[in-house]
Amino acid sequence: MDLYIRRTGEYRGPSMVFLHGGGVAGWMWDRQAEFFRDYHVIIPDLPGHGRSADIPFISMNDAASKVLTAVRDVVGTEKVILVGFSLGGQLVVEILSRWPEKVEAAVILSAMVRPVNTGRTFLISLLKKSFGLVRVEWFSKWQAKSLYIPDAYWEQYYRDSLKLTRDNFLSVMEANMSYALPETFANSNVPALVLAGTKERGKVKASVRDMVRANRNCTGYLVAGAGHGLPLADPDLFNEMVYNFINNIRLHKNAKLKRVV
Q1: Which of 46, 80, 134, 138 counts the highest number of beta carbons within 10 A?
Q2: What tens digit of pLDDT does each residue of 70-107 get?
Q3: Which residues of 143-181 are buried (b: 16+ CB within 10 A; e: fewer)?
């Protein structure tokens, strides 16, 4: 079974692939699809999520391979611009580490590449016991707020939460918490913008520094005041940063950005 893919914009324009975070789906990129309407926008629902809910999430590498297969069916051998958030950002890292020749440029947002070692077994056990909460409306509303999901999207978010199976949920969480920066990431020659918010977890912010130091083609910034969900919380700012980066327009004038070296 192939991943579900939504295509918008100008099919003859440069191809941009947006990879969503865990627990949501491709709809989180609606404001980006609208902004980049002069581009060929390709938005997959990742394994286990949204309209790809029936496809098992097996591993980061398997999910990255499925994304590339689905994209290749659309664009052939054309290189693409990759944009990924959280889980989707980790998948961008995986693709750059294994198949950089497929990518023109990349934007990696809120991707953790420092494994959670201490207490991971306990956390997974806790997640197993609390999985049923994702099906409770009040908990779903609280979680949506923490991800900056607009009220207009809550019902869609809740419907997708109901599609997420226990096995896929645990596989995603295990993959997310255990993901480490591949050694081959250093070999990628793809220009990459690496971002995180100043209000995000320490491991997420430290991961920006890890990627910048591992690969000289990475440019890293922390976004002042931003939490985990910048494309939803401040789509105008995020869209401007992505546009400027892929069009070689300098970002340093933005007062909200702090360079990571």
Answers
A1: 46
A2: 999 999 999 999 999 999 999 999 999 999 999 999 99
A3: bbeebbbeeebbebbbebbebbeeebbebbbbbbbebeb
Rounded to the nearest 10 degrees, the angle between the axes of helix 154-163 and helix 137-146 is 110
- Of the chain, the end-to-end C-alpha distance in Å amounts to 42
CATH superfamily of 5-260: Alpha/Beta hydrolase fold, catalytic domain (3.40.50.1820)
Q: Return the pLDDT at 252.
A: 63
- Tokens of residue 135, six digits: 């099906």
Domain boundaries, the chain: 5-260
Q: What is d(CA 118, CA 68) in angstroms, rounded to the nearest whole number?
A: 33
Q: Taking 80 as the threshold, does the pLDDT of residue 1 lie above it?
A: no
| Token pair for 145 | 């707020």
Q: Give the contacts of 212 (CB within 8 A, at least 6 positions apart).
A: 194, 218, 219, 220, 260, 261
